[in-house]
């Protein structure tokens, strides 16, 4: 792929002062993510993966180094986090380990809420939410509340919510950790599909070695550093995932 990176992190460090000691959570890390790429951040517990995602998501500024979003340097040691809020809201979607859906809203209403917060009129927001859920294989679940959905379905609603504003960058922190292996695989296939179909740059932090084949690129972290970078083969999926397939109705 030759497109310019959506996200580029250059020589980034993040140090936390904890009592008398300084924790080097990240130490001179560089990564980049291009449109349509599914990128994995791997590594043992404590290796700096989540801290990397905080920098990428403009939720923390680096102690040293820079974060470029869509070709512009937006985050650096003196950058003000409150000024990054709007960029974050417009350009970055987040998915976490737990779906964290609002229990008294339906699946469609949960997704629509993300749009209404962005001043999209309620009716248009709901229509878009339903269309997005249908695309992600959840057309039969739009009117269900979260308690009626499986863990995998809830996570797919959370992914739809993160995609509602069509962000160019989607960041996911251990999104399959709470799922069994089959449902975890489906969620990873969905990320793969989103990267291919929408050109979204998707970054997934994971401990899970079972979906390594889906990544275009992986960065392996250890002690706050990138110790290995691997590139995959960029093969497109054989068929769109939102065509009827039995595994999408789990
Ligand atoms: N706010 C903080 N204050 C002090 N130390 C921190 C802070 N955040 C992270 N750390 C430390 O930085 C290191 C990297 O943490 P980080 O959460 O990025 O690792 P991780 O690879 O995501 O781990 P896990 O897989 O367990 O979530 C750890 O030693 C952690 O204890």
List the topology elements.
Layout: E1 7-18, E2 21-33, E3 38-43, H1 49-56, E4 64-69, E5 72-75, H2 81-91, E6 92-95, H3 107-116, H4 122-135, H5 151-163, E7 169-173, H6 181-198, E8 201-205, E9 217-222, E10 225-231
Parallel strand pairs: 3-8, 3-9, 6-7, 7-8
Antiparallel strand pairs: 1-2, 1-4, 4-5, 9-10
GO molecular function, one term: ATP binding
Keywords: ATP-binding, Nucleotide-binding, Transport
Organism: Acuticoccus mangrovi
Question: Quick gist of this model?
Answer:
The protein is of the alpha/beta class and 250 residues long. It has six helices and ten strands.
Structure explained in plain terms:
It is a single chain. The protein is α/β, with parallel strands linked by helices and 250 residues long. The protein has one domain (7-249): P-loop containing nucleotide triphosphate hydrolases (Rossmann fold). 30% of the residues lie in helices and 27% in strands. It contains 6 helices and 10 strands; from the N terminus they run βββαββαβαααβαβββ. It has a 6-stranded mixed sheet with strand order 6-7-8-3-9-10, sandwiched between helices. The chain has a 4-stranded antiparallel sheet with strand order 2-1-4-5, with helices on one face. A hairpin with a 2-residue loop joins strand 1 (7-18) and strand 2 (21-33). Helix 3 crosses helix 4 (122-135) and helix 3 runs parallel beside helix 5 (151-163). The chain is globular, with a radius of gyration of 18 Å. The model is unreliable at 235-250 (pLDDT under 50). Adenosine-5'-triphosphate (ATP) binds next to strand 1, strand 2 and helix 1. Adenosine-5'-triphosphate (ATP) binds at residues 16, 18, 23, 25, 43, 45-51.
């Amino acid at each position: 792929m030759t497109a310019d990176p959506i996200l580029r992190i250059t020589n980034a460090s993040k140090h936390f002062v904890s009592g008398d000691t300084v924790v080097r959570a990240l130490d001179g890390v560089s990564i980049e993510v291009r449109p349509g790429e599914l990128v994995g951040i791997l590594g043992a517990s404590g290796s700096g993966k989540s801290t990397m995602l905080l920098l990428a998501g403009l939720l923390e500024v680096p102690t040293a180094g820079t974060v470029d979003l869509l070709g512009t340097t937006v985050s650096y040691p003196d950058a003000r986090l409150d000024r990054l809020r709007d960029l974050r809201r417009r350009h970055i979607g987040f998915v976490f380990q737990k779906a964290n859906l609002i229990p008294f809203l339906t699946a469609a209403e949960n997704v629509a809420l993300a749009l209404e917060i962005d001043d999209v009129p309620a009716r248009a927001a709901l229509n878009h939410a339903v269309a997005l859920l249908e695309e992600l294989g959840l057309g039969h679940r739009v009117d269900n509340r979260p308690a009626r959905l499986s863990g995998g379905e809830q996570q797919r609603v959370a992914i739809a919510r993160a995609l509602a504003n069509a962000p160019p960058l989607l960041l996911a922190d251990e999104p399959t950790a709470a799922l069994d292996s089959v449902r975890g695989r489906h969620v990873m296939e969905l990320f793969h599909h989103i990267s291919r179909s929408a050109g979204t740059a998707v970054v997934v932090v994971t401990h899970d070695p079972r979906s390594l084949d889906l990544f275009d690129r992986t960065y392996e972290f250890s002690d706050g550093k990138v110790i290995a970078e691997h590139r995959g083969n960029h093969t497109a999926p054989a068929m769109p995932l939102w065509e009827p397939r039995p595994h999408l109705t789990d």
